[in-house]
# Entry
Amino acid sequence: MFKVKFKLEKESFVEASLFAYRHHLKGSPKRFLGLIFIAMSQFGVVSLLQTKQSGLLFLSSILLIYWYFLRERIRKKIYEKSFRDGQEFTLVVDESAIEINGVKLNWGDISSVIEFKDGFILQYQRESLFIPNKAFKLEEREKFLSLLRGSSIEIIRES
# Structure
């Protein structure tokens, strides 16, 4: 058993939140929406040339601008506003569970763990929890990883 205390920094929180969003989108059918918007814009050009109506082209252009240029910026603003500065977390890890600020999660409650360059994202129920690498000393991080492996939780490594 070991115990670590850490505070999240706004930049790492926002980056982890965007990473989790991109990771979930990567495996989702929603990722194809951009292609649908591109097809709509092509039909909009044809419609404009043949019938002189620009409604579909206008709508699809707005959707394309949102999907490829504004979506992540808007997400980033939402994550920045949801961040509470100065919140301290206490993480207690043992062979049977992980406890975060008094909330106990058995290893079986955690569906998967995403390991990436900035830390770990624990996914349980419909929630995600970011634990930065800075929270651990090297030996604690290795022990945390060995406990994860021993609990048969799926560990997804992303670069």
Observations:
- Residues 31 and 76 are 18 Å apart (CA to CA).
